[in-house]
Design a protein that fits this description.
The protein contains 11 helices and 14 strands. By secondary structure, the chain is an alpha+beta fold. The chain has 2 domains: 191 residues, DD-peptidase/beta-lactamase superfamily (Beta-lactamase), CATH 3.40.710; 170 residues, D-Ala-D-Ala carboxypeptidase C, peptidase S13 (D-tyrosyl-trna(Tyr) Deacylase, Chain: A). The strands form 3 sheets. A 6-stranded antiparallel sheet has the order 2-1-14-13-12-11, sandwiched between helices. A 5-stranded mixed sheet has the order 9-5-4-3-10, covered by helices on one side. Strands 7-6-8 form a 3-stranded antiparallel sheet, with helices on one face.
Length: 412
């Protein structure tokens, strides 16, 4: 088809098209430049006076965004990254917890725990298998939990709570000191986990909860949690050898008792930390902290000894000496640190970054308390750079989604 437009018309249209394209490009560049020129301004609108944000380049330590970064705030569960560093420094990253089994002259089986947070229904049969036929008959099962002080009071935990995150700590605990249950079609309580028996020992506690299903915690009232551990061991032992006597507490007598097994957990401390971070287990965080205290200052392990180990670690690592550390999980609102401190913790944790939860090119840990939300971790940018980021919100907790969306818009 013949084009009847004059050369002048064609020239005008081409020029107009070029100018439109140029205008669009300049506007886009202007928008990008405004983002790049003052990225902090877009975040300041989302942050209150008790909120902080720090984004840094890992390898250069250059701060890209820094808002209220030196303000001491409640960190919630991102504190677990610091606890993990303290435990690995004190115990060794390849440390394996152990549990000792003894027999005494009266055919009693004695079990001494050393704080293993992952004694669960799945591992107990393996313990019993390793004992073998060394004790063909059992009178009493005697439980020694003296490696940790009892009871241990964790700041921020609620006494007589039914929430799993408030489960008490101890040196001989099974199934995180919790019982998971439900009702069957006939209305009877049954275990909600096929690998775990629902023992008569806990039925009254479950009935008093008035729940049809859920999880109760075993408290340190009347040593309920340690006795529960004994009944679980008894349940699995009776598949192999009769248990004639009772469950009771006691201590190991090194002069009379014979060690028949030192069971070494197959899970290294790093694997325990991976699970702790994934499930944000408050119980596990304080178990490894108290174990670190016992390792450095002798038994009984106490929270105070664990805090002492943490304070020494903080004092010998740049920028962490002023951290206010009350317990290891982040459950206490009296824990305090700044985004700058958390940035230093992320620098120390960088070799272990793959222990964190992963989503796309982001590795992260979150934290939540009433009125508090936090998130910290690492981000690989669209250009391949590695960044660390810390968001701690004590005044505007509901801003987290918008802040993370903005971070991703800028760098992801």
């Amino acid at each position: 088809m013949k084009n009847n437009r004059s050369p002048y018309t064609r020239y005008f249209l081409l020029s107009l098209k070029f100018l439109i394209i140029l205008f669009i490009c300049v506007c886009s560049m202007g928008q990008s430049l405004s983002y790049a020129a003052a990225p902090e301004d877009s975040f300041k609108k989302l942050l209150g006076k008790n909120d902080s944000l720090l984004i840094s380049e890992i390898h250069s330590n250059k701060h890209l965004i820094r808002i209220h970064a030196d303000q001491m705030l409640t960190p919630a569960s991102i504190l677990k990254l610091f606890t993990a560093l303290v435990a690995m420094n004190a115990l060794g990253e390849d440390y394996h917890f152990h549990t000792d089994f003894f027999s005494d002259p009266h055919k009693n089986l004695k079990i001494k725990g050393y704080g293993d947070p992952l004694i669960i229904s799945e591992t107990i049969p393996e313990m019993i298998h390793q004992i073998g036929d060394q004790i063909p008959e059992i009178n009493n099962i005697i439980l020694d939990d003296t490696h940790f002080q009892s009871p241990i009071i964790i700041p921020g935990a609620t006494k007589n709570s039914t929430q799993p995150y408030d489960a008490p700590n101890g040196s001989l605990c099974v199934n995180f000191n919790t019982v998971f249950f439900k009702k069957d079609r006939n209305g009877a309580y049954v275990s909600a986990e096929p690998q775990t028996p629902l023992l008569p020992f806990v039925l009254d506690r479950i009935a008093r909860s008035s729940l049809d299903q859920g999880r109760i915690i075993l408290s340190d009232n009347n040593q309920e949690h340690i006795l529960y551990a004994g009944y679980i061991f008894k349940h699995f032992l009776e598949r192999k050898v009769p248990v004639k006597g009772i469950i009771q507490q006691g201590i190991i007598d090194r002069n009379q008792d014979t060690l028949i097994l030192r069971y070494r957990s197959p899970q290294s401390l790093q694997e325990i930390i991976r699970k702790m971070l994934y499930y944000s287990s408050n119980f596990t965080a304080n178990q490894i902290l108290i174990a670190a205290g016992a390792a450095k200052h002798g038994e009984p392990g106490t929270l105070a000894k664990g805090i002492q180990v943490a304070q020494k670690y903080a004092a010998t690592h740049r920028g962490l000496s002023e951290i206010q550390f009350q317990e290891g999980s982040g459950l206490s609102t009296l824990n305090r640190l700044s985004a700058s401190m958390m940035g230093q913790i992320l620098k120390e944790f960088f070799p272990y970054r793959n222990l964190l939860k992963k989503e796309g090119r982001e590795l992260y840990k979150t934290g939540t308390l009433t009125g508090v939300r936090s998130r910290a971790g690492y981000l690989q940018t669209r250009t391949g750079k590695l960044l660390s980021f810390v968001v701690i919100l004590n005044s505007n907790p509901n801003s987290m989604e918008n802040i993370m969306r903005q971070i991703h818009h800028l760098y992801y």
